[in-house]
Amino acid sequence: MPRDTKVTIYYGPQSWFKEQLRKKERTGLLDIVYERDEANRRHTHVVEGQERPPSEEPALRPKRVAAESSDYASLNEHVITNFAGLIRSINPKHLHLHNPPAHVHSQLERAFTTEVKRYEYPAVTRDTLVSFRDGFAGHLVGQAEVKEALLAALYPLTTARLTKPVVLMFYGPSGVGKTETAQFINGLLGGTLLRKQFSMFHNDKFASYLFGGTHSEASFARDLLDRESGVILIDEFDKANSVFHSAFYQLFDSGVFEDNNYSVKLGPSLIICTSNYAAEDEIRKALGDALYSRFDSLVHFKPLSKNEIRQVIDRLVDDNFSKLTPDERTQLEPEKIKAMLYPLADKGGNVRKLGKLVDEVISLLLVRALLNDTSQTNSGPNIKDPT
Known about the structure:
14% strand; alpha/beta; 5-stranded parallel sheet; globular; Rossmann fold
């Protein structure tokens, strides 16, 4: 039996992997494994005097077998441990694997002729910086110093000499544009932003997520491999317990992240961590010098001024109004809605909460109009402080 299987390993987004194989007929690795398991379960023991059943025809050699990154979670641990043996028994002419565990990769390289292909994420260019500079004010109110700091921080990504990620810490109060700025940068480059909220993880789950549990469990490393974008957003980084800080040393230093199952090499990319720290000294004290020193830049998002909050209210109302139907627009007066909301500017503002409040106010006014509620025609909605 020939053992000349040619292996190609792809590291990158699933959409790219599928595009690479778009015109190639292939059989799923899991389909073959499931069929073999089912055949084993149908194994017939011949009883003395019973006619032996006809033997099954030997399976044809598969031309092309493929596995996506999510498929490995369905395989037993012993299969992963002896993955090369599984492939020898299947003996395909071509094997295409997407983001496999490191142990699978190393086995195949020793056993077969193996080619590795890596997806090239869109790079930050001069045009990216120009678009960021020119579009920043239209995307975010205020934060002029943030724009200048980010232009300087992003510049190294335009050079050929950079081989590691640029790692940034966005800090400041909630609702002033940190996450929105990360999304704006990602929008200039394309692809779905990889966003992880560390506040969502409890310590027991977080340990296996960062350091790797069984290969079937969710992991940060596998999420990095599957990402669609060269921008990685780690929201609420300050919520991570300090015992996990060491997991990021190598990632921030050289762009390499390894857990018990996977190995990731990011190369030039952008990692943005957000937090609610108020000052750099607070960040240094909370993270410690070892992690603090690994950030390339700390970008401070300041609380919005009264005038800036009024600008935010204007934008939110105008944006919401533009999405209404012509009939709905006839029921509302945008300038009156803005005037209702302006007093909130005296109390400071969280843009995210202001957005929800604008939605609620407009919905309430529309439902009153729909139900012909004239009992409160001379009074606006009861507006609660969103801070």
